[in-house]
Amino acid sequence: GSSGFEERRRLSEQKLYSYTEEPEFALNRDYFEEDFRSHELPDEQRAYVMRLLDALEVTDRDKRLKVARAILYLAQGAFDECDTEVDVLHWSRHNVFLLYDMGIFTALLELLSMEMDNSQACSSAVRKPAISLADSTELRVLLSIMYLMVETIRVQTEDDRPEWISAREAFKNELGSPLYNGEPFALLLFTMVTKFCSMNAPHFPMKKVLLLLWKTILFTLGAASPPASAMELIEQQQQQKREHKITLENLDTYNERDPFKNDDARDEEEDPEDTDSGIEGEVDPLDRDVIIQPPPPPPPLRPPTERVNFPKGLPWAPKVREKDIEHFLETSRNKFIGFTLGNDTETLVGLPRPIHESVKTLKQHKYVSIAEVQIKREEDNVTDHVFTFSAEMLYLGMLPNLSQYVIALLKLLLAAAPTSKAKTDSINILADVLPEEMPITVLQSMKLGIDVNRHKEIIVKAISALLLLLLKHFKLNHIYQFEIVSQHLVFANCIPLILKFFNQNIMSYISAKNSICVLDFPHCVVHEMPELTAESLEAGDNNQFCWRNLFSCINLLRILNKLTKWKHSRTMMLVVFKSAPILKRALKVKQAMMQLYVLKLLKIQTKYLGRQWRKSNMKTMSAIYQKVRHRLNDDWAYGNDIDARPWDFQAEECALRESIEKFNSRRYDKNKNGDFTPVDNCLQSVLGQRVELPEDFHYSYEMWLEREVFSQPIQWEGLLQNP
């Protein structure tokens, strides 16, 4: 409904602005009114926007900024004319579609490119001992308008006009196509991220860049909803009329109505590793209950009429892979007939009747994933794979610098994580939140403290959502595109980084109150501002959860699942980094989706944790059994035979890399015989070659130089060492 839409829009706009930026709302309004009064124009919106568009092209930077502020005021809903928050959002939407129609986005894009290449701003920012909000004013105004345009046009509503629907389609195609310097718009933003992380542009407002990047990819590629299996699982279990039902808010199975509620506090399982958790401070005893316990048998004296009927079986069908059937038959043939038949899954000669039954059951539950089909087609050299246009354009653009992008995003994630300690050499992500004048009163310090924490939380949210979107869409486009991004993430230490993120008091992170409601947009522009007090700042909002942080945690868990699924050596990394106690503590958050992804991560490593761990964690084992889909012949709970299986991280990753390289060279290598082409080592001859460049290259060569040459660290001393 429209009220739900308005709430989403409000929340979406809130996170764009820091509380430190609050005085700028009035500034935008003042510039708009000054400009509007100074030009006697007919009361015609289009003519006025057209005049603003022309004024954006003036050479005077200050004048340009004033015009950009007037445009931002329109995109913010011309709030001075509005009485309610709903009015502000209504006019913001109306104005944004008008701005898009008049070609404002393209003009902003040119200005953004100019600002990015503004070497004077970059070098002065690099030299400054302390950077503040003032150093990124132009960039923040441009990025804010662009964010409002992307996010407003992206979201559909029931009362969209026909011309708005066609504008949405056109804008989506525009953003996903290589229209901007021969690359999709997202690549420009990725370049800003790497330039910032290479310390060449410390004034770039990273939060806004990341939010815009996330929303651009969300718009062009589509949403990353939880996979059907997870949603089905939750819905099916809600439908089952059991007493221990699962809900999205609370997965605390045994509620007051449960006839078998176990009140015995001594039954708490203790994790031997939990005691030296490395978490600061002790755990709240109220916080200690682990989610699910298996129902104890009903007391024998209970009359049968009162017994609760639990449905038989589990709420979803197990899956089986072709590999599992092959493995089962190989073991059976070795045992009963003494030799194997390779990949043959049809011949059952010489095998006893029960084995025939088992194979039949396995085949009934066989599931072939898209990934398996794609891998098989690559092995068979099939070239007619259908790619999704937007995802393919993005992959093509990202491929040459993929490792830089991944490393930069993880650097930012690390800097924004609450577990990070401020180090002098770490990246400064607070350039677009710190005021010019540092706080002098306790109240100002409290306000800035909340602002900084909120700023970091929003960065974590944007990066976690962005990485998950990339993994999901590249996996749909082609499994090897997903695998190369995954491998770059793994090599850049993403697995220990996410575990480090969870090695904090997750309950307090998820119930953090880093917001000041009266300063949130659009509330702050339509209501009288009450006087802020220390008490009102401490109170925070009324929400039980900080949904932003819950969303980030679920995203990070899903990323971890995607990186480790079916990868033995990466699963062993979870074991080696002692993730089990960290993940177990995350189960204290009573939210079904989050618990599901935690349980999945525990399930894949259970067989490597040893008998003692399983014995002292029976409730967790039971929870996995109840909530996570099973593989028919995966002895995840008690399989000790694989414990001794060696794991060679390098060999596994190298084999995977070989397949990825083959895929990339077949699909994207213009020089097909790259391996065998002799190298021309003569400097004169190389410099004398004619290189085919795109027609518009001279427009963007400075950006290309920045990204390909200046941002790349070069180890010159390496030339002096003997090979």
Automatic annotation (TrEMBL):
Pro residues bias locations: 293-303
GO cellular component, one term: cytosol
Occurrences of domain Far11/STRP C-terminal (ranges): 352-701
Ranges of residues in domain Far11/STRP N-terminal: 8-309
Region (Disordered): 247-305
Basic and acidic residues bias: start-end ranges: 254-264
Assigned protein family: Belongs to the STRIP family.
Protein name: Striatin interacting protein 2
Protein species of origin: Scophthalmus maximus (Turbot)
Gene that specifies this protein: strip2
